[in-house]
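Below is one such protein, fold included:
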Amino acid sequence: MFVVSGLTIFLFVLGTLVFQSQAARFFSWLLPAITSAFDWFFLSAGNVFVLFALLLVFLPVGKVRLGGPDAKPEFSYLGWFGMLFAAGMGIGLMYFGVSEPLAHFGAAFDGPAIDGGGLRSDAAPLGGAAGDPMAARDLAMAATIYHWGLHPWAIYTVVGLALAFFAYNHGLPLTLRSAFYPILGDRVRGGWGHLIDILAVFATLFGLATSLGLGTTQALAGFNLLYGWGTGGLAAVVLIGVVTSFAVVSVVRGLHGGIKVLSAVNMTLALALLLAILAIGPTGEILVTAARGALAYGTNFVHLAMPFSREDTAFSQDWTSFYWAWWVSWSPFVGMFIARVSRGRTVREFVVCVTLVPTLLSIVWMAAFGGTAISQKMEDAAAPVASAAQEVMLFRMVDQFPLGPALSLIGIVLVLVFFITSSDSGSLVVDTITAGGKEDVPTSQRVFWATLEGVVAAVLLLVGGTGALDALRAMTVSTGLPFTLVLLAMCYSIWVGLWAEVREKRGA
């Protein structure tokens, strides 16, 4: 596992560097090719994951405890939420928290000529609301919550639950192949198991590379805005190198000494920034935006979740398909990480806490950041945030407040800490997969994966040129597509395993 995965990714990096122009053209073709051809598949699969996760809450299998009847949780609720939320969303909340609601608002209110920084919206979400700012804001928030609400967390729930159940209740290794024991039996130890785990490694690595690329561009943009630092390729490589070094230190310190501490720092800084926006910003409008946005999300949930009509294809292909592939590519990393910290929880508790609680937090976050940016644009169409590049929208928005530079600096630090947390958590998970589920592996192997993640992100940013983020997204959707099939099969495996345990207890 280690040799095949590591060598394949090394050859990919080498080939991309040697054939840079060809690679750039390939990446620019790959992203729209996959999202346009398979948008219906991503949307349909996402719906399956949501329905499956919610169904488990109301069935008798919800009483099954991960680790057995006597298992006790290792972490408090607060510590648990902090780790899963930091791992599950991380940099994305900082990068898209302002830009996505604003992009959807512009498309709904002004028309389709809006640039989402590589994610276009050539058709307004839900048909738009031209000339009606309040209705356009509601539609923008509904579309944003759809991308950051139940669907991504249901994807994480499926993977995390499968890994935790088969590892803690059946004594199988904590790796992706174990989740398919009811389907494959002892064959999970052979070629089929190797294939599943290798796909998981690729999906995780490229999903993380996308996040690291987004974090790098945003942090550099913030440093440039505040201090006039450069934003070119060399600056990106240097920043990735520095942050990867911190990630390596955290990985060496382990789950409790490194990742748990950084997750606590993450949550503290994120909460401080959120409370600052709520206090300094248009508090009343933020609360109204959250309530109306959640209502619009619920009201339009079916429309948003169904394969889209002809006029909505640009929205589903350029936004939703990428997001669903991104969440799927993150799911081995996030799912395994959540599984490692969720022993002792019941299935019902697991699903509710991993699916519903983060959805509520995402609504509040998007309403605070995106709603504030929309309010600034509604008050002044020429507001700085309205014309800013995507990676600086957050900083342009907070710059309008007292202590704007201080808030921008907190935002940059938060991006970097999210960067480190994602990198060290991801490398820990990839290391576990390639070690066949063993948690006690050589430190040098953890360092290798943490370093390789940074190398992949740096190479894709350099080779992609002006379309660097598209290159990262292309690799995400290309690995997320086959792994979606793996997750669908995983749902069946969970179903079989949980009901077998319920029947066994009833017969005991």
